[in-house]
Design a protein that fits this description.
This protein is mainly alpha-helical. Helix content is 71%, strand content 2%. It has a two-stranded antiparallel sheet. A hairpin with a 2-residue loop joins strand 1 and strand 2.
Length: 259
């Protein structure tokens, strides 16, 4: 069996024979691990054979899909390269869900750049990628840049499917008012809110002071060591923007809790 033979040790002299067996297997449409065989036999493939193998197996992995894309790019056939990348993404998208085992950021970046350069529509792929948690805050900025007319629409999907990353995106864009609204609505985790106020406390002083004081009160009602650390960390942040309020909070803690 061809798959079993690939698991054995063999020398370079065996490659031409193994190549013929592998090509014969593909021509008969038998299931086989194309990626493993492709990488082993690549040195003895002709360009025509390489194209044949990649077209047979490109749907198996992002590596093979990218190899086929690069093959046609080198042949100066960008439209053909994009066509197979589109087929690959469609094959691994089910009801607007992209499987992360088969689709990654590198592949998506390749697709968006190629589709944009050929003036091909990309919103559906962008929406599926965002909905499938394959786009983080940094990558979203790039994707949205390709879709200025539909950025708000895509942001709604991002916010609905991945609120913490969307919050990070807003923060990186310095859209602080929107960040504050999300915090007020409790749309983000508490640790995310704390990191936000710790970073932007001097810009949103009033809101930060209110938040820090509330966080101190919340953690004082509990007794585990994590909460004690939270109180200390919050007092230090508060001290930087409102030293008098921090001193008063500390005085009350010492008085009421004898700490």
């Amino acid at each position: 069996d061809i798959d079993e033979r690939f698991g054995e040790f063999f020398g370079n002299d065996d490659l031409p024979t193994l190549k013929e067996e592998f090509l014969s297997t593909l021509k008969k449409d038998k299931d086989t691990d194309v990626e493993k065989h492709y990488q082993t036999l690549l040195p003895v493939f002709s360009e025509q054979e390489k194209e044949f193998v990649l077209k047979k197996g490109y749907k198996q992995s992002s590596f093979l899909a990218t190899e086929l894309f690069d093959f046609y790019k080198k042949q100066n056939q960008p439209a053909e390269a994009l066509k197979y990348l589109q087929k690959y993404l469609k094959h691994h998208t089910d009801r607007d869900y992209m499987h992360p085992h088969y689709v990654n950021e590198t592949l998506l970046r390749t697709y968006f750049e190629a589709a944009h350069s050929l003036n091909q529509p990309i919103y559906d792929v962008a929406e599926a990628a965002v909905a499938s948690h394959l786009v983080n805050a940094e990558f979203f900025k790039t994707v949205a840049g390709y879709l200025p007319d539909r950025q708000q629409e895509l942001e709604k999907v991002f916010k609905k499917k991945n609120r913490d990353e969307f919050f990070r995106y807003l923060s990186k864009q310095n859209r602080l008012a929107e960040c504050l609204k999300m915090i007020q609505k409790k749309d983000v985790e508490e640790k995310t809110a704390f990191k936000f106020f710790a970073k932007h406390k001097k810009t949103v002083r009033e809101e930060a002071e209110v938040y820090f004081l509330h966080r101190i009160d919340q953690n004082l009602t509990k007794s585990d060591s994590t909460c004690y650390k939270n109180v200390v960390d919050t007092l230090l942040e508060l001290k930087e923007i409102a030293p008098e309020a921090a001193a008063e909070a500390l005085r009350i803690i010492r008085l009421q809790y004898k700490r």
